[in-house]
Structure formats: C-alpha cells, structure tokens
Design goal:
single chain, 49% helix, 2 strands, mainly alpha, extended
Length: 217
C-alpha cells in the first residue's frame, strides 16, 4: 500500500477563492485560527486572540485622571486617598515575619474534596490561590510618595499634630471604605472636631503647594 507523501513543513492552507476575493471565515480551520491568534499575540494585538468562547474582546481603556488647573483641598484629598491603596499594592512586607508552619502540605482525598465542595470551601480556596495582585505603576508610586510626604512637610509643627493625624486617618479610612463614624467614636473625638481638623489640614497643604508653585498632577 502506497502512503501519500505530505509536506510537514508547509501548513495546510485553504483553497483560495476563484474570483480572488477573501476567504469565508467558516472555511478557515481551527488550527489556522489558532496560528493567526498566536501571531496576533506576538505582535501585541488583541483583536485576533482566541478566548475560551471565541475571539477575545479588546481591553477597555483606563479612565484618564482629571487634573485641575490649580491645587485645591479637594484635589489634595483625592491624592491622599489614592496614596494609601497604592502603598497597600506594593510588593513589600509591612510587618516582621512571624512564626510559620513547617509541616508538609496536606493531601485531600475524594471525601474531603466532596465535603469542601458542599460547603463552598473548595471555591473559596480556589479564589484565594488564583488571586492576582497587580503592582502599581511607576507614576502611581511617584504620586504616592509625594502625597504621603505632605503631612510631615507642611503639618510638622507641634500645633499641627492633631491636624496631621486627622488628615492621615481620614484619607486611610476613605481609601479602604472604612466606617469613619465608628472609628472616630473609638478615638473618643467629636465628629465635628475631627472633620474641622482634617479640612483645615487639607486647606493648609493646598495653600502650601500653591505658594511653593508645585506642579499640579
């Protein structure tokens, strides 16, 4: 029996249309679509990449930051609230490393996995293992370092001690959606006093930035 010779180096190509027009997408084989998707990925394109359910949709463009023409206490407040989440995303240890478990990993049998699936523990552990932390960009880190320096630079006097503390705490609570009313109550400070202190601190920082002609960003 004679085996037909095939050229393995040359991939299979669909027959060109007789009229010289473009090919019907339904006639293109899946392997060729995968090859085209691989080339698109190497070129940095997003349109031709295949996903689990077909062609992947292009990524949405990031929302552009709105920068005012002049420093204001509102923009200073936004910059301070932006700095704390950026600090939390940095790949760095925030506290000394404690005791760790040196025991080997536990292997679950089928019964354990079935029990975890019934109590939704298996899905929770899978989400924790698949969690991805995106590091901040260099521009975000630069803005964070600048904003976190403002309280120590412009509210460093003894008379500004409580004002600087109110600015930092208010920005931290707002950045992580914490209950500011309960937090102020734990500090045993009147809410009106705390609000007046933080607003005064933001206004002082904004005034210093304007006086020093710091570029707005």
């Amino acid at each position: 029996m004679k085996i037909p010779q095939t050229n393995l180096a040359e991939p299979h190509r669909p027959k060109q249309a007789l009229d010289g027009g473009s090919l019907d997408p339904t006639e293109v084989r899946l392997s060729e679509r995968a090859a085209a998707a691989a080339l698109a990925e190497l070129r940095g394109e997003r349109g031709g990449i295949l996903g689990a359910l077909g062609a992947a949709t292009p990524l949405l463009a990031a929302r552009k930051r709105r920068v005012p023409d002049r420093w204001s206490f509102v923009h200073v407040m936004d910059r301070m609230e932006e700095a704390f989440p950026t600090l939390a995303r940095l790949p760095m240890a925030t506290r000394p490393r404690g005791y760790i478990n040196s025991m080997p990993l536990y292997l679950y049998d089928r019964g354990d996995l079935n029990s975890q699936q019934e109590t939704y523990e298996l899905e929770r552990m899978a989400r924790l293992r698949n969690r991805v932390r995106l590091p901040p960009s260099p521009a975000e880190i630069e803005r964070m370092e600048e904003a976190l320096h403002w309280p120590s630079a412009y509210l460093s006097g003894q008379e500004f001690h409580h004002i600087a503390r109110a600015v930092n705490l208010a920005s931290l609570w707002a950045a992580f959606d914490m209950d500011a009313a309960k937090a102020v109550k734990r500090l045993k400070i009147a809410p009106r006093v705390f609000t007046a202190r933080k607003l005064q601190g933001f206004r002082i920082i904004a005034g210093e930035l304007v006086r020093r002609r710091v570029p707005v960003r």
